[in-house]
Amino acid sequence: MSDFADSVFYGLYRVYRHIPIVSGLTGRLKSMHAMIMPSSERRCRILCAKDMTVIAALWTAVFTVYSMMGRNTLYKYLILLVVLYALTLGFVHRAYENGQLRLLKKFDDYLAEVRHYFHMNSAIEDAVYESMENADKLMVLHINEMYNLLISRKENMIEKYKDMAPNKYFLTFMGLLNIVMTYGDTENVFLDNLGSLRDEVRCRILKINKIRHTFSGLSLMCILPVLSLKLIEKWGISNLPELVSYYDGVYGLVVSTAVVILSMTAYGAILFLKGDNDLKLESHRILEGFEKIGFIRKRADRYLFKHAAYEHKLKNSIRRSAGTVTVRQFVIKRAMISISVTILVFAGILYGLSLNGDRLLNKRLVLFILISAAAGYIAGLLPGFFMAVKRLLMSMDMEDEVMQFHSIILMLMYVGRMSSEVILEWMEDFAFIFRNSIMRCNMVYTMDAEEALEKLKEDEPFIPFVRIVENLEACDRVGCVKAFEEISMQKQYFIEKRKQDNEISISNKGTIGKVAAYVPLFAAVFLYLIIPFVAESLNQLTGYTDIMKTL
User: How many CB atoms lie within 10 A of CB 82?
Assistant: First the structure.
């Protein structure tokens, strides 16, 4: 029976992956299961399908209850669908965060076990194998993957493990094991590195707990305005029936759309501010599909050719925001959003007018076309605005990432035969903000190391990062220990500074998140409740005044 059920869910997974609305959510769920609990591809798909089936059942229940509330339109059902998708995405990230936190805590305990067995037996393979005896079952699954790669003694074991590592700390541990096997362990460097790795893990645990406390309730606060629109409408009409003309007309359509856009934007900002980037799967399949269309590709290339300065500026913006989209794809994305919003706004206006039985005159038609075009133009600017905001928020984390590089360097600098090229490869594996620049540096490093490092400093002029690059330039000349002597001497200072910077950064992001969360609520109350009440009250007062004048 179990095999039959698994076969059914495996088939359902294929169905979910081909449904446009839920395909992205399905991919995230599968990624979550694969990273938290390593298992076969088939098992991950079955677990993902089970989760998606539960989500589908919950969505159906919510739609059923919503239908029973009466006075619903297709537009309102679409709004509900958007909200449910956003809430589900938030729950997926929450589940992933809980899984990562649980995994990190168990990993911290496991590192203590490895340290104990390595003291007893200096053979690293034996220490890893024996430490699994008392480890948690979940940890055994992950460590067993590492152990199998270790005993295989393949040169590309780190590359293979990258695809199955649940986070960068497990990848660091695998790298340390590989270093011991490759270079040996002198002066107990491995034990010192284990201590540094435990410090990193604990720092991450504290950061996650601090972030969860700071952003507690803000995600729900972003969604609450959209969920309250229906209640506001029912309460308003029960007290003032004339408000039907506002809620069912163009005004209600425009305001509800604005509230939904504000809420979803704030919701996405909260997720980004919390740092939920580990599970972020940037897929550009739709853009790639449009890019393959000859007419669209030629139009985009022609636009970029005529605006060479904009193309250069856009390249730098994408690089500094750690984006994976190409310049041509970004231009196509802007055009798609602009055209889509123009059509949707115009169709929405026509729909709202049709509910009130209004007839379109030629002059009004021209006005509505202009309004729709203006809305489309503004929407086309949003991708650039969001990228600028992302770049601004990422600049707040630059110092923290540089401090992570310091931790990596401290683990590597005392290893025999260590080189700047190996350090750069490790930095690339753990970078997010500087990843694209370091990746380009590594691609040309073997051809001209000096030129590659100079270009890296030009691409990333952030002073603390530039100092690391300058130390890398001296690394092969004077040795890693001497080149990074300053970092080693100020190790404790950097640890304390990183903790303080994390506190300040999380506090600042929390302030931004609270402002973003309350904007949709303010807009819903003011635009959807207060203004219609005041406007209709003034209309009735004017009517009563006119009647009194005629008496």
Answer: 16
